[in-house]
Amino acid sequence: MRYLRSISKCVKARGPAQQILHAARITRPRISLQAALSAFLGSYLSGIGVPIFSARVVIAALAMGLVCAFGFVINDYCDADKDNISKPHRPIPAGLVSRRTALGLAIFLATLAFLLSCTLGFWLATAALFLIGLSAAYSLFALRTVVLLGIATVAFLSSASAAYGSLAAGGLSSANLIFMTLLCLNSLSMETLYTLVDMPGDVRAGVATTAVRLGPLATLRLFQAFTFSFLLMCIIPWLLGLASNIYMIAMLGCTILPTVSVLAFVCATYDQLNLHRARFGLRAIRILSIIPVLLLR
């Protein structure tokens, strides 16, 4: 308890430490860590035999985590005015982090990610630069206001981390392609749900996202379609003989049955509270899904 009280005092304290904590919030450390983890998993599934914690793989994972963090920071920087209306709790509209600080942090993260990628060779440096550019374009050109394009961009960036890790290890395998497809479909499903969760605030801020343009019913149908596609992809590797029976058992318990439960829950009672609960559920399922994915190799 004494240790927890000391942490609480540090968080409440004013000064540079508090500013660093607030700046760290806009990098979304949890999701950036997931991007780095995806790169590690991509390396592991490549089957090349490169040690998962070799310098090359670790650098690739760090670069992907930094690219992901950059994407969130530049997005908060570009959306600061709209967030004043729709998401006033975020650090920039709440006055906890200035836009100037956010821009400087974004430049630092992008530069560091690119410099790290340069140690991996020309092609991986080029790939990292492309991902940085795409992350910036998503926010600078408001791609999320284009029906499906914003959702698809986020899904591509999510799966790109796994591809980057596998290429850093030496090449792609069938397990990599399965993992990347699962990540992409899962991201399409989750991002579509997120547009529904954010729709009331986006309407107030005048941001025409996919959910605002299509309406809640059509967006819910889109979410169902992406989720069913994800569930089907969970089974296909086993049907094609690319995955073992143990994989299928783990996938049923960790991913398929929980996802079906969340899907039924959302469709049974559509309201904002249930959408928030479903979002939390899908996040947890994404973590649990690591278990069957590890069995692909």
- What composes the largest sheet? none
Predict the CATH topology of the largest domain.
Tetracycline Repressor, domain 2
What is the strand tally? Answer: 0
Order of helices and strands: HHHHHHHHHHHHHH
- Label the CATH architecture of the largest domain: Orthogonal Bundle
Helix coverage percent: over 70%
- Treating each run of at least 4 consecutive H or I residues as one helix, how many helices? 14
Features:
2 domains; 0% strand; Tetracycline Repressor, domain 2; 297 residues; mainly alpha
What does this structure look like?
The protein has 297 residues and is mainly alpha-helical. The chain has 2 domains: 21-169, Tetracycline Repressor, domain 2 (Orthogonal Bundle); 173-297, Four Helix Bundle (Hemerythrin (Met), subunit A). The protein is built from 14 helices and no strands. Mean pLDDT is 91; it is low at 1-13.
Concise description?
The protein is mainly α and 297 residues long.
